[in-house]
Amino acid sequence: MEEDAGKLTHDPTRPVSMVDFNRTGVPLIEIVSEPDLRTPEEAAEYMRTIRGIVRCLGVSDGNMEQGSLRCDANVSVRPRGQEAFGTRTELKNLNSFRFVEKAINFEIERQIDVIEDGGEVVQETRLYDANKDETRSMRSKEEANDYRYFPDPDLLPVEIDAAYIEAVRETLPELPDAPAVWLDLVEGARSSLDVFTFYFSPNPDAMGPLQPVLAAVEARGRAGEHQPEARDERERHDRDHDPQGTAHVAA
After folding, report:
1. Contacts for 144 with CB less than 8 Å, ≥ 6 apart
2. Are the C-beta atoms of residues 223 and 230 closer than 8 Å to each other?
3. What is the rounded distance in angstroms from the CA atom of residue 128 to the CA atom of residue 107?
4. How many CA atoms does the CB half-sphere of 164 hold within 13 Å?
5. What is the mean pLDDT of each run of 10 residues along the chain (251 residues)?
């Protein structure tokens, strides 16, 4: 957790930088994942899931293009069969799901080319240029001690016990990927009205993850108008087959 310190806006026509303090003091939450993602598509889907959760909880509007949600992607490659990770680079401030995929794709290919040409990947922070579809070096980045971290004597440690965490968990609304909700919607609903009957949230932004389901249900309803036997066929199929795992929609 930290606070936004503002940002610099660089004038492309003259050597001048402007300091924007409008967001100074806005709280920031940094979520750091384990290195478990293996493809650019997985990284983008991970970000979509995070956005669905923060919108559902009312933490943020999750708009990447407006800076409410950003992605810093650490990328490394290694030969097949090698246990240890390769040297990583950090792609800073990616501000759309499409750019997350494209930047990681480029960086993977760049690192492979460097290694296959006999070079070594340098640990550094890089920026993604969407116009040129390439990454470029921003600054070198070594180890944590290069940041000169030190404890702030004015900040007391915050200790949160398990009972408090569980009490907060009990107050959470149903999250976007609740399997039972999606199964009921896709299998039981015939129209968007049924969807709103099944699912209600006091936070209007939380309805965003439902849009793919709404579209699918509307399409199914229109098809059913011209094929009256469609529902009967589906019900017979459900009786003859195990319905577990029928549908899953990720936010």
Report:
1. none
2. yes
3. 9
4. 4
5. 82 89 85 91 92 87 87 93 92 93 96 94 92 89 64 85 94 72 52 45 51 64 48 41 30 30
